[in-house]
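Fold it.
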Amino acid sequence: TAALNDVVARHEALRTVFVEHEGIPYQSGYPARTVNLAVSEVGPDRVDATVAELRRYLFDLTSGPLIRPTLLV
């Protein structure tokens, strides 16, 4: 988790959100952001299905973060 948050701290794109004002989208960045690393225990027969499910996640571009790390064990 510490290494992941170090990467987020170094790369503004991972702290960026997109807000709309009067119909015009604007890019905005958080000066700092902490990302949680979800850990999910998955059996070998469920890895493909779990990855497919994780890929269907829809990000909220207005509140972020635009990264959703998950460690499959």
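Residues 14 and 67 are 6 Å apart (CA to CA).
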